[in-house]
Amino acid sequence: MTENKMRKYAVVDLEATGAHSTAAIIQVGIVIIQGDEIVDTYQTDINPHQPLSEHIIKLTGITDEQLAKAPDFSQVARDIFELIEDCVFVAHNVKFDANLLAEQLFFEGYELRTPRVDTVELAQVFYPTFEKYTLPDLSELLELELSDAHTAISDALATAQLFFKLKEKIVSLPKETLEQILDLSDNFLFETRMVVDEVFEKSRLFAHEKHQLVGGLVLQKASSVQSERHLSEDFNVNMALLGLESREQQSEFANLVEQELDQREVSFLEAQAGLGKTYGYLLPLLKQAENTQIIVSVPTKVLQDQMMANEVKQLSQVFQISSHSLKGPRNYIKLDNFYNSLRNQGDNRLVNRYKMQILVWLTETVTGDLDEIKQKQRYQAYFDLIKHDGHLSAESQFYDVDFWQLSYLRAESSRLLVTNHSYFLERVQDDKAFAAGKILVFDEAQKLIFNLEQFSRRQVNLTQLLQKTQKCLVDQRPLLEQRLLEGLSFELSQAVLNLHQNRQVRLSSDQIERIGHLVTELSLPEVEELRDCFNPQFDDFWLESQEENEKRTVYLNAASDAILDFNALLPETRKTYLISATLQISPKVSLAQLLGFDDYRYVAIPKEKRPNQKIWIDETMPGVDEVSEEDYCLAIAERLLKLESLDKPILVLFNAKKMMLKVSEILDKWEVRHLTQDKNGSAYNVKRRFDRGESFILLATGAFWEGVDFVNPDRMVEVIARIPFDNPEDFFVKKISNHLLAECKSPFYDYSLPIAIIKLKQAIGRTMRRDSQKSAVLILDNRILTKSYGGIIQKALSEEFYVSQEKNEDRLVELAKFLV
């Protein structure tokens, strides 16, 4: 036998009285591996001679009564030491298990000096696209047997299976990739690299049919395009082929999409949330327009990824539809930059671990979309360094395999192209041919007015810019350039000072003129973004301060007072659809008018109330204007604590991030398990974790109001913290108000209130996506009951939803009965 075959690994898991270094061991599970086999197992309880906390009892299922009968550690120390002393110590988070066990053995006279291997780090590197690396998460993703999580022997057996999976994954990688990983593998914790060293000998050079070697990097080859299968003329048959059951309203909507295809005008189609609009427009268009590319634009990248992972993936698998997700260049890796970062190996262990992760990812990704790496936010600065800037030298060794360039080309040849509103606007402004003659579908079209506003703005990080100008001033420069830089630095510093000292948010006309003149005269690349801000199209400039990573950052914003004409941006298309659950903002204001359309068709599918969804308004909640924000957050948290007893998934929607984080802080203090958007990951990440049942409570904001669907839960509670009114001080809200006042319309009743109602309706529709689901919605904002406009909100909600009119102190009983 070779030395590697003789090497033994002891996979260890401990349960303890806590996660701290002074915790006492209460259970030991050990699995001995030799070669590719489990050759021995060991398990025992340990009496810690102290009561367990409720948390540990609930987590492990171990009781004080059970441990009272268990041996002391001193009675089993020798058995444990002799079993593992000649092994490599393997654990999931090896630092905790190895340190705790070694310390306890030392107290009994045994010195454990075994090498250590951490399966968490190995999993992070060799499964780069996973979001979470806990043992339960990995067990689900890799189909490991974990029958009794947080029981030592069960966790040890699952970790042993993970260890086998990791070795299989490592040996499957090209030898060239493993060589590069070994160059970086001293950055693994402890002796973890020895696993890669062992497996390396069995690895093979890259296979030409699967991979390609470019500039020393092994890249995945794109799969060949398969012939598209014909769709049926019958929408219901196509849904059945997808393994789905169509609904009456969905089928009606699909027929409407098909009928509108031959109409010359732009079609605004209004259809109730939750009827399955995506398949409703994709299937008839893919069938009826076989020789025309379909471009679907959705509001956010989160929804874009969601659509690609669900509906588009299903269509590609069943009907072989060639599809592509197109984003801006900054979403893709630039191989030149990554290659250069490999050559400049620094001493940052986390960055070097990411380099290993990316080397593995490059053997698997076809898109090069960095969003596939879910944990990149832990060191965003490195990913900013390697992301694409939209420029590519013809001299680049990666020119023919550049992901952004290939994405651009793939977008031209795909039958179905999915993008987001922001990128669509950016692209079509520079290249109208991109959309000319195509079929355009704008899903969640009501978001276009906000995307247009963001598109018509510019923003510059003034804090960073001032640092850059100070660095420039240190260098020797021509006298005129030096004077201009000094003048610019002074003006920007004064603007920031006025913000902090005098709360002066807007730049004066004199400041605008002086800064505009200075940036026009300066040709330095450092001020290019600022120069773009002072383009003649912008006529309003203001500062805002944000706290980021415990640092205060000041931004300069530039915008135009005019509302951007979306219609004028569009080229001549074969057909354009704008689809939403609500297109008529109010009797006097429509989305079509705000987007600049005079000639259009408006068709609506009649709305139906669904008996499986009901709304309650909490009249016992304190008034928004009557208590402090802190007390209001406390009241929200108290209600969530009660709702937790329903044992159902709870989505909590906030209109402001600050309030969301305050409620999360209270729940943390009360040790209520929950997920919070941004705090526990991106919107996409926390949504997937919530869907997997990692927590029953999800606190969310932003995209969750209008575009994130909850399809999985059969029973669900949705809590809306406040009526989602827009901030009246927001620049865009003021712009719309001025526009409506000029037309003798009411900014509040003709726009702000209807927009809030639209957001409410769309949010409520997010948790009712299947006929078999039941969704209970609790609105905490009692202004619906106390304010004069509350009746308008109640009436609007009652048109589509069942709203409880009963006044009952015990909402919990009502909700529980409804969710049976």
From TrEMBL:
Cited CDD domains: DEDDh (cd06127)
Protein name as annotated: 3'-5' exonuclease DinG
Keyword flag ATP-binding: yes
UniProt binding sites for ATP: 271-278
A Pfam family assignment: DEAD
Motif DEAH box location, chain numbering: 443-446
Family indicated by similarity: Belongs to the helicase family. DinG subfamily. Type 2 sub-subfamily.
Any one Gene Ontology cellular component term annotated for this protein: cytosol
EC number annotated for this UniProt entry: 3.1.-.-
InterPro entries: ATP-dep_Helicase_C, DEAD/DEAH_box_helicase_dom, DinG, DnaQ, Helic_SF1/SF2_ATP-bd_DinG/Rad3, Helicase_C-like, P-loop_NTPase, Ribonucl_H
Domain Helicase C-terminal: 635-809
Naturally occurring in which organism (per UniProt): Streptococcus henryi
Keyword Lipoprotein: no
Gene designation per UniProt: dinG
MF-aspect GO terms: 3'-5' exonuclease activity; ATP binding; DNA binding; DNA-directed DNA polymerase activity; helicase activity; hydrolase activity, acting on acid anhydrides, in phosphorus-containing anhydrides
Function summary: 3'-5' exonuclease.
Domain annotation Helicase ATP-binding: ranges: 236-492
Any one GO biological process: DNA replication proofreading
Keyword field: ATP-binding, DNA replication, DNA-directed DNA polymerase, Exonuclease, Helicase, Hydrolase, Nuclease, Nucleotide-binding, Nucleotidyltransferase, Transferase
